[in-house]
Design a protein that fits this description.
The protein is an alpha/beta fold. The protein is built from eleven helices and four strands. The protein has a single domain, classed as Uracil-DNA Glycosylase, subunit E, CATH 3.40.470. A four-stranded parallel beta sheet has the order 2-1-3-4. The two termini are about 30 Å apart.
Length: about 270
């Protein structure tokens, strides 16, 4: 990052930290609703430690860091909220992402990405956010509003990072971005911001299926079989940043395929 980029990144990082801290300060009632979800779904309540999670990996980013992708995951799961972690995508989905990036792009996932979520509010599974709202009892409406507000705020942070860094915004997860989906408020906020942004910036918004259960790997493999990418498209500014390992034949072509898939999904879901 340039000095200017890093200074702007630090400003956004601090805003993210303060915003999540502001929710955490009054999160005891959210924790009670989460306990209800854990008991209803048969999780071990002892595993529940952190109701609202800030990604401490953001603190590892320095002026010398060169993020290749801004990753937007869903919300913190069981592994992410554990006190020993407080980092995003450290469960099974994260392990699949680490493996895919190494084998197909020849880069280290952890050092080459900056990860945020669509909301910092924890549930073991994303779909359980609906149950979490119902489990808040008399404060269900308040929690529903907080969930929406947090998504809009996190979408604004994602857009800020997209403006600062010269890399794609990799949005992981498609289904819940659709109308009536859990993360539709996040999608609508990002869409509104992007429609007022330059074309070049909008083109760096890519949407993919989740890393979990190999959904993304399957999506990529299917697209690779179905589509022909002009080798010339692989000659882009990112190629020099993607260092191949012996098992990666052409990371530049992989990047071009990612752009094709991600932009196609973006058009379908966000309409631009």
């Amino acid at each position: 990052m340039t000095d200017t980029q890093f200074a702007r990144f630090c400003d956004v990082r601090e805003k993210i930290r303060l915003y999540i801290s502001s929710i955490s300060e009054n999160a005891q009632w959210i924790l009670e609703a989460q306990r209800t979800v854990y008991n209803a779904r048969g999780y071990y309540e002892a595993d529940l430690e952190t109701p609202v999670v800030y990604n401490l990996a953001l603190e590892d980013i320095t002026a010398k860091s060169e993020p290749r992708f801004i990753i937007v995951a869903d919300n913190p799961g069981i592994q992410e909220q554990k006190a020993k972690n407080h980092r995003y995508l450290v469960g099974q989905s994260g392990k699949l992402a680490v493996s895919w990036f190494r084998e197909n792009l020849g880069i280290d996932f952890r050092s080459s990405t900056l990860i945020i979520n669509k909301t910092p509010i924890h549930t073991p599974k994303t779909a359980e956010l609906r149950l979490l709202v119902r489990s808040a009892g008399s404060r269900s409406d308040e929690l529903a509003g907080l969930l929406v507000d947090s998504q809009r705020e996190m979408a604004r942070f994602a857009f800020d990072l997209l403006e600062i860094l010269e890399c794609p915004l990799w949005v992981s997860g498609i289904g819940e971005l659709r109308p009536k989906g859990i993360f539709r408020p996040w999608a609508e906020e990002l869409r509104a911001l992007c429609l007022g942004a330059p074309f070049e910036l909008r083109e760096r918004v890519w949407l993919f299926r989740h890393f979990s259960m190999n959904q993304f790997a399957i999506e990529y493999a299917n697209a690779r079989r179905a589509m022909m990418v002009d080798p010339k498209e692989a000659q882009n500014t990112q190629k020099a940043s993607l260092v191949p390992n012996p098992g990666v034949s052409d990371p530049g072509a992989t990047y071009a395929m990612l752009a094709e898939i991600g932009r196609r999904n973006r058009t379908t879901i966000l309409g631009f």
